[in-house]
Design goal:
The chain is of the alpha/beta class. Helix content is about 40%, strand content about 15%. The chain has one domain: Glycoside hydrolase/deacetylase (TIM Barrel). It has a seven-stranded parallel barrel with strand order 1-2-3-4-5-6-9, surrounded by four helices.
Amino acid sequence: MKIDLNCDLGEGFGVWQMGDDASMMDIATSVNIACGFHAGDPDIMHKTVKLAKAKGVSIGAHPGFRDIHGFGRRPVPGITVAEVENLVAYQIGALQAVASLAGHKVTHVKAHGALSNVACEDDVVARAIASAIKAVDPRLIFVVLANSRLADAGEAAGLPMAHEVFADRAYEDDGNLVSRRKPGAVLHDADVIAERVLRMAQDGAVVSVTGKVIKMRTDTVCIHGDTPGAVSIARGVRSKLEASGIKVEPFARA
């Protein structure tokens, strides 16, 4: 049995740094790099890509709404299909260009924050994201929240997919993530999270806030790099999985 650990990195801006990217890069097997819309800039993107290459870590584009102030976690009402396609394609292309400059290759795409949350429940937005990925490169792996509209859109578009579960986020009974506006949406206890991820991997299921067991394909586990204690959480998760005989490796290699 094998599983990938992914982390959202490169989410600083200018001189401002978010999280401990270097330490997370020693633990994660795939990273999703901000492409300048919700966070990141060309210099940070290049630095993050170079570090990933040096560490043998796979990289993916992490496109979000154009919302630096809100860190891409605020929905954009009234956005059109064409606008979603354009912003996703633009950000993938930006990372591909920077990756080429650094001698690395983009293997996957994972939507960020509010863009992902909206698409998990909205077929139109989900299909627009999938359409943009397919137009840029149909070989790119679409990282999708398991059981969501994103997964349906990826399947309809014929894209290769990696189904994702979240180590440090609580789940509603419908399989969607609990809104960050609600208490308990983000988990912080490293031991509890590690045990939870092991169960996800072994059982192919997550447990909702009410105790409901929801079957989910589990190809990759996300640990947010901006969560307090992220490095300790990630290290605990990886150690728990490996101690239980589960191989931790990327779902794709450049």
